[in-house]
Give the backbone structure.
Amino acid sequence: MLIIADKILTQTKQLPIPLSRWAVLVRRGNICALGPVEALRKSYPRERTLILHNALLMPGLVNVHAHLELPSLQNWIESRTYASWVLDLLKMKRHLTDKELIKSGKANIASLIESGTTTVGEISTHGISTALLSASGIRAQVFREIISMDPSKPLIRRMPLPLRNTSLLRFGLSPHSPHTVYEHAFSVIFYL
């Protein structure tokens, strides 16, 4: 398929930014050619053409750190210090229901897609976002968040690991931070 847009941004330093009246040839999900519209139409006359009027065609955005399961916390947590903010966040998260987590996850994924984000690094505490991401078609690296300051409690709860990687979803572990994960847990995580 030839995709024609009024403006095209690329990650190629040698080309002007943005490109005007250029096209992209896409086959089986891969970009195969980029060039002026007339040249690509001449080289690939049988390709189906999609014309995007008043549009900017560009590489998808990447959000490298998201918590899609969580609702907006801006008005929920007001703390004077970072340490008290983290403790208040952990307390608040315990009271969220699965219904609230699912609603937030769906809204946050819709926001990613609407903004042109095609790949996300999701830090999942509750295991809710995996199914939502799978259904969305967005590419994701889903990290199981580890918060464990108490060595007597299980390190990983609720979301089973390992999960199977797919073409769109990959899985891993994410220790929250050095001050919210006890020392031995870090060594266990890095040897998994």
